[in-house]
Amino acid sequence: MGGDHGDKARVIQVLLFMSGINTLLQTLVGSRLPTVMGASFAYTFPLLSIVNDYNDEAFATPHDRFIHSIRTVQGSMIVSSFVNIILGYGRAWGELTRLFSPIVVVPVVCLVGLGLFARGFPLLGNCVEIGLPMLILFVTSQQYLKRIHSRAHLILERFALLFCIGIIWAFAAILTVSGAYNNVKTTTEQSCRTDRSYLMSSAPWIKIPYPYQWGTPIFRASHVFGMIGAAFVSSAESTGAFFSAARLSGATAPPAHVLSRSIGLQGLGMLLEGLFGSLVGTTASVENVGLLGPTHIGSRRVVQISTAFMIFFSIFGKFGAFFASIPLPIFAAIYCILLGIVAASGITFIQFANNNSMRNIYVLGVSLFLGLSIPQYFAMNISYDGRGPVRTNAIWFNDILNTIGTILDNTLDANHVEDRGVPW
């Protein structure tokens, strides 16, 4: 986009600030589940489209290009936010989710976790000497070391993740200072070193995000349509994450009116993100949903307290920049566990359906396979400039992947009531 490290630091601050605000709204009046709202990868394609459209335009400085690009992102997000608002508060999304039988929820929730497999071991493999120890240490402390003593069980069950991050982060810092990565490839440096974010020196000490801080939004119809597609997908992602969060926290499955309300509020949050100049919209964080499983902490109060830290780190930039120096392979190791837990929580919904029904097996098998196979097709056929194989934003097709289970489940003929599954 042309921005410098200072612009990157400010964008991260805005993302963190809006994530905190939207998380607080969702836990208070939205889904009322212990879910954290975070940046959604569904907005990658429309964002790349906006960036690529300005490749041929001349700007006085790279910063000018950044400002022009992010103002266009703002305009697209403001317009597309009304899609979620209308779907949510117009009850349309709730009516759609009423069609969700247990056999539909299985692929919807599973694909929320499995669909992010590229953020797991492939990212960990960029720096094996950091990512692999993190993975082994996390599994060992969570599943074995906690058995040593009852007090150790209580501490490690809740805080093992923090301890493991601190230990491996310190190990990565030692390797960086000792010169272990002085003569390696650039990609290895970016993945392994703790001093390659360049945010500590560029982040402001105090900066409060405010509306229109980048300038007046720019509205372009061609970009708005791509962002609308991303809004649909983020809604489907959040719906799957809400089902998983309810399952892992011991709550009942969210009813249709709650899902409508939460998606409508997500649209309002996206409107605020467009006004404040966030780079992408937010969705229910799959990683934090997975964290409900090993920690057994399903309290909304805990999540609400965490929003105070998110807002604090977004305003006091130096503190947030310090934590941003954690190498990505450390997070990739965490994703290997947490995303797998989310996918497994989706599988547990199969207990509410008839597992001997060939129709149910058909729906599950086809939905799961296509849910992984179709995005892989697009990933293998994306050109260097970020365009899909049919030269349109592939995000529109991703929406089909998240709803294909619903389409199949409600169009195939069910001869017997027991094939639909038991009430849940």
Q: How would the blueprint of this fold be written?
A:
Layout (H helix, E strand, L loop, with lengths): L4 H25 L7 E3 L4 H10 L8 H28 L2 H6 L4 H13 L6 H4 L3 H16 L6 H28 L8 H7 L28 H29 L6 H21 L5 E3 L1 H10 L4 H16 L1 H7 L4 H20 L10 H23 L14 H17 L13
Antiparallel strand pairs: 1-2
Helix pairs in contact: 1-11, 1-13, 2-10, 3-10, 3-11, 5-10, 5-15, 5-16, 5-17, 7-8, 7-15, 10-11, 10-12, 10-15, 10-17, 12-15, 13-14, 16-17
In short:
With 424 residues, this protein is mainly alpha-helical.
Largest sheet: 2 strands, antiparallel
- The backbone outline, from C-alpha atoms, is globular
Structural class based on helices, strands and sheet pairing: mainly alpha
The beta-strand count equals: 2
Per DSSP, what share of the residues sits in E-state strands of 2 or more residues? Answer: under 5%
pLDDT averaged over residues: 82
Measured as a percent range, the helix fraction is 55-70%
Order of strands in the sheet with the most strands?
A: 1-2
- Count of helix runs: 17
Number of domains: 1
Strand-and-helix sequence, N→C?
HEHHHHHHHHHHEHHHHHH
Uncertain stretches: 394-408, 413-420
Distance between the termini: 48 Å
Query: Could you tell me the radius of gyration in angstroms?
Result: 22 Å
Name the quaternary structure.
single chain
